Amino acid sequence: MWAITRGGFNQKIFNLPKTLSRPLMATSNLIRVSSPSYSTSSPNHAPFKRVGTHNGSFHCDEALGCFMIRLTDKFSNSEIIRTRDPKVLEGLDAVLDVGGVYDPNHDRYDHHQKGFEEVFGHGFNTKLSSAGLVYKAIDAIDNGINQFDTDKPPKYVNNTHISSRVGRLNLDWTDPDQSPEKENEAFQRAMALAGSEFLESVRFHARSWLPARSIVMECIAERFDIDPSGEIMVLKRFCPWKLHLFELEAELKVEPLIKYVLYGDERGKQWRVQAVAASPDSFESRKPLPAQWRGLRDDELSKETRISGCVFVHMSGFIGGNQTYEGALVMARTALKM
């Protein structure tokens, strides 16, 4: 297992190797980047290798790709060199996002060349970026692929995703210092930002999201013990359940689909009734809680529902609460019939 030591924080994540940093150097046509030290115990005898990417404006895919390739045993002691000089690139041990070649046997990972159609496979059809070619990630945004199958403009713009945050680390046009050294420092920050979020995502999925799958599967299997309809599921232990539910319903051919999920709120010592969304990314519910309940609270809600212990129902009807499990279950059963 790989131990990350950073500011006293020690964390083990999968079988990823360790990284070291190299000194910061620059020439007029070539930029060497020292990236942060994410571990301190790489073997000193590891051969020194050089990984190249383009200079100039940078994006999330090559920043993350450079970070990730340095997590491998082969390139754990590597130096990042930013240049577009073909002669320099030819002599490097690996090249990302520049050079016009995708050849993993020779550690060339560009995706800009004509005819490039490499995808992850296994049912995923998004064309890969340079980071994706290293570890199949950050691909749709970098390749200009729309998130939805529609020509309609989005109702709002998300400018806080990882790609946009990396983009804002590029040198500001108003900055009087536009030197390669300054650009190099910005790219180093981009690698740290993209890399830290990547590692945190791996940690979350390994320690939290994946173990939750077995919990959700067990709860789906027991749904008819909760209610004869099979449309109410109770989480024995709260965990990331939403995407697992959609995937498992499809795999297990669950019919009818689950409409409500009940789970305990340990902090409030209450129970929640959550309407399952129409799809993983939808704000619409398969069967929202009844309209006449929405926006009501406490005694007023209990009077309207004729169910004791009611706490609230959200204005959109996607979630409600009750002081007890029994009350939450009655709310779900009643809502099914309305």
Description:
Belongs to the MYG1 family. This is Metal-dependent protein hydrolase. It comes from Gossypium raimondii. It holds the Pfam family MYG1_exonuc. There is one protein chain. The chain is α/β, with parallel strands linked by helices. It has 2 domains: 47-202, no CATH class; 212-337. The protein has helices at residues 60-69, 86-90, 130-135, 162-167, 180-221, 223-226, 242-252, 298-305, 325-336, and strands at residues 3-6, 9-12, 25-26, 31-33, 50-53, 79-82, 94-96, 102-103, 108-109, 119-121, 124-127, 232-234, 260-265, 270-275, 310-313, 319-322. A hairpin with a 4-residue loop joins β8 and β9 (108-109).
Key descriptive features of the protein:
2 domains; 9 helices; 338 residues; alpha/beta; 5-stranded mixed β-sheet; 7-stranded mixed β-sheet; disordered N terminus; 31% helix
Give a count of the beta strands, DSSP E runs of length 2 or more.
16
Domains (count): 2
The helical percent reads 25-40%
Strand fraction: 15-25%
Q: Which residue ranges are poorly predicted, with pLDDT under 50 across at least 5 consecutive positions?
A: 1-28, 35-44
> Which structural class do the helices and strands define?
alpha/beta
The SSE string, one letter per element, is EEEEEHEHEEEEEHHHHEHEEHEEH
Task: Please give the structural blueprint.
Layout: E1 3-6, E2 9-12, E3 25-26, E4 31-33, E5 50-53, H1 60-69, E6 79-82, H2 86-90, E7 94-96, E8 102-103, E9 108-109, E10 119-121, E11 124-127, H3 130-135, H4 162-167, H5 180-221, H6 223-226, E12 232-234, H7 242-252, E13 260-265, E14 270-275, H8 298-305, E15 310-313, E16 319-322, H9 325-336
